[in-house]
Amino acid sequence: MPLTDSTALIIRRFQSDDLAAVLRIEQLSFDADAWPEIDFRNLAEDDAVLFLIGKRGIELVAYVIAWLVDGEGYIANLAVHPGVRGQKIGRSMVERIIADLISRGADDLALHVNENNHAAIRLYESLGFRTVEETPDYYEDGSAGLLMWRPV
């Protein structure tokens, strides 16, 4: 099935057999900033972590990872396969994780994004996030990380 297929997006909890596809999307999306496999394994085993994947048909095309600490939901990682970007999959994943964080009691939400990831910044701003802090050299390539925040 081609990645550009218009099959409906199904969002569900991560399962261990999703790991290879998640790692592939992570590497394609973040290259030098990609998380190591052990981080994904550890997060998948943590009941406090929300780890969701998005599938179209049999193809895993996206994932999002978040957690809740002291009333703040933190979206730690979001990636969409490059072959399906621009199809609102990222928006669907973020909207779902926000709803899940709110249902778990989040009072506000935060995330970090690379200052050069303009598409992601636009997405987050459209969902009510605002930049509240910039951290220089946050990413491996020296790019700043923008801390974005929004109330629920």
How does this structure look, described?
By secondary structure, the chain is an alpha+beta fold. The protein has a domain at 9-107: 3-Layer(aba) Sandwich (Aminopeptidase), CATH 3.40.630.30. The protein is 29% helix and 35% strand. It is built from four helices and seven strands, in the order βααβββαβαββ. A hairpin with a 2-residue loop joins β3 and β4. The longest helix is centred in the middle third of the chain and has 15 residues, at 89-103. The protein is globular, with a radius of gyration of 15 Å. The relative contact order is 0.15.
Write the layout of secondary structure elements.
Blueprint: E1 9-13, H1 19-30, H2 37-44, E2 49-56, E3 59-69, E4 72-80, H3 89-103, E5 108-114, H4 118-126, E6 130-135, E7 145-151
Give the gist of this structure.
This protein has 152 residues and is an alpha+beta fold. The chain is built from four helices and seven strands.
Write out key terms for the chains shown.
152 residues, globular, Aminopeptidase, 35% strand, alpha+beta
Question: CATH homologous superfamily of the domain at 9-107?
Answer: Gcn5-related N-acetyltransferase (GNAT)
Mean pLDDT: 95
Gross geometry: globular
Gyration radius (Cα, Å) is 15 Å
Note the run of SSEs as H and E. Answer: EHHEEEHEHEE
| Low-confidence regions | none
